[in-house]
Specification:
The complex is a heterodimer of chains A (288) and B (164). Chain A is built from 5 helices and 12 strands. Chain A has a 6-stranded antiparallel beta barrel with strand order 1-2-5-4-3-12. Chain A has a 6-stranded antiparallel β-barrel with strand order 6-7-8-11-10-9. Chain A is globular, with a radius of gyration of 21 Å. Helix content of chain A is 36%, strand content 27%. Chain B is mostly helical and 164 residues long. Chain B has one domain. In chain B, 71% of the residues lie in helices and 0% in strands. The N and C termini of chain B lie close together (8 Å). Classes of the chains: A alpha+beta (288), B mainly alpha (164). Chains A and B meet through helix 1 and helix 2 of A and helix 1, helix 3, helix 4 and helix 5 of B.
């Protein structure tokens, strides 16, 4: 019987690692097991609640004040944003390309963390019932957080940008140099992959999503370049990025819903047309 | 004596083991701390499988393993095989294992968990760019060190609840 089970396991593992056939089963099992995550996370959820209940009046007033200040600051920024967006759309109209569409977001709360240190995944409290689908981008207040890789009825699983298996098409905010930011398995390090030595990237550059590949919307901050190392023996520059998102601290995240038609420029339209599965290949194809 | 008596106790102990295997440390603790986590599920399973082998089925354990796979974000079937193999070993040798002292049982567990963790790392390495790490020895050591405590606790529960 053990041999039978071993064969069953081997088949399932082979199916699971090389195809997507087991995903519905995982979703179903995930629905059943999500309460276990809630129980395991309950100390943190409870302490958050209790902290709110037992907070002193002064603390609450102080917090209220800081939040109000933040709202004012953000309101000012968004006023500018509205006029800038209008101007941008007008200029895009002059160039003959369509304006960017606004994205809808959904706020979700973190309800679990995958315990394996080699896997950077978290569980959020919105799933199929909130119309979340595999592949949606997830942000936190500071930057790109990750993407949805598995959905069950009430929860879904988010792969963080720093996971070893994660890569995101990016560009340098200053000059638009495109590359791929890959995760390294450490919470504070991303790397630009296959960047030629001649590429213009310097320390302190802001790296943002390029929108190529169609999976991540363009223009969200991914991280800041902390070191650029040119090895004389290597054909590539080693660029280390510190992620903007607070990957190991954020408890509230935003799930992005892409509008159905999101054709922006010819270049991006081309990449969206060719499908989102082959981000890396595409990136190389469209690189000038 | 009712043969199904105390089924809920066994079930609860497995649920507690599941919760313990996914509880994470507060933010800010060093990442390698989570390698100190013993494999709770194997401990609980090993106890019930040598004490009441007729109550633990291999196929049941394989199915439990599917849920563990989803909880730990690992390929489906991996933990099922690990749990079923532990059950198999316990079934084959339960009379002898019961006679062993607790420390000999620790040794058996060390070998079992080490084999299981090596298999786990190999399978996880198949589908990703994950690098081999030597922490697996730590997991096996921690598991065998936790065994005496788990054993004492569960023996108490078992005799208290008169689970046969």
């Amino acid at each position: 019987m053990l041999i039978g089970l071993a064969i069953a396991s081997a088949l399932l593992i082979a199916l699971g690692t090389s195809t997507r056939l087991t995903e519905p089963a995982r979703g179903w099992l995930g629905t059943v097991t999500s309460p276990i995550y809630l129980v395991a996370e309950s100390p943190y959820l409870l302490s958050e609640r209790l902290g709110l209940i037992f907070a002193s009046r002064d603390q609450l007033l102080e917090r209220n004040e800081t939040l109000q200040r933040q709202v004012l600051e953000l309101a000012q920024v968004s006023q500018q944003f509205v006029s800038l967006k209008a101007e941008n759309d007008r200029l895009r109209g002059l160039l003959g390309s369509q304006g960017r569409l606004a994205y809808e977001v959904l706020i979700a709360e973190l309800v679990g963390v995958v315990p394996d240190p080699g896997v950077h995944q978290v569980i959020i409290d919105k799933g199929v019932d909130a119309r979340i689908e595999v592949g949606q981008a997830v942000l936190d207040a500071a930057g790109l957080f990750g993407q949805v890789v598995e959905v069950s009825q009430f929860t879904s699983r988010v792969l963080l940008v720093t996971d070893q298996n994660h890569a995101v098409p990016v560009q340098v905010n200053r000059n638009g140099v495109r590359s791929i930011a890959g995760g390294t398995g450490e919470f504070d390090v991303l790397e630009l992959e296959n960047l030629p030595v001649s590429a213009d990237v310097v320390e302190g550059d802001l790296i943002e999503t390029s929108g190529l590949g169609g999976r991540f919307p363009a223009g969200y901050p991914v991280g800041i370049v902390v070191s650029v190392l040119v090895e004389p023996t290597s054909a590539y520059t080693e660029v280390v990025i510190r992620p903007s998102a607070l990957l190991d601290r954020s408890r509230h995240v935003l799930v992005i819903f892409q509008p159905d038609q999101q054709i922006v420029t010819e270049q991006e339209a081309q990449s969206a047309f060719e499908g989102s599965e082959t981000d890396e290949l595409l990136e190389q194809e469209v690189r000038p | 004596m009712n043969p199904t008596q105390g089924g809920w106790v066994i079930l609860t102990s497995f649920l507690v083991a599941l919760v313990l295997s996914i509880v994470h440390l507060p933010e800010g603790w060093p990442e390698w701390f989570s390698w100190l986590r013993p494999s709770w599920l194997v401990l609980v399973l090993f106890f019930w499988a040598i004490e009441v082998p007729h109550r633990i089925g291999m196929i049941t354990m394989w199915i439990v393993g599917l849920f563990v796979d989803v909880l730990l974000a690992q390929p489906l079937g991996l933990n099922g095989f690990i749990l079923a193999s532990v059950t198999y070993v316990a079934w084959q040798f339960f009379e002898r294992l019961r006679m062993y002292s607790v420390f000999q049982q620790c040794g058996v567990l060390f070998i079992l968990v080490l084999a299981a963790e090596v298999l786990r790392e190999l399978v996880l390495g198949l589908g990703s760019s994950r690098v081999w790490n030597w922490w697996v020895f730590l997991v096996a050591t921690m598991t065998s060190m936790a065994w005496p405590f788990v054993y004492l606790l569960l023996v108490r529960i078992r005799t208290g609840m008169r689970i046969e």
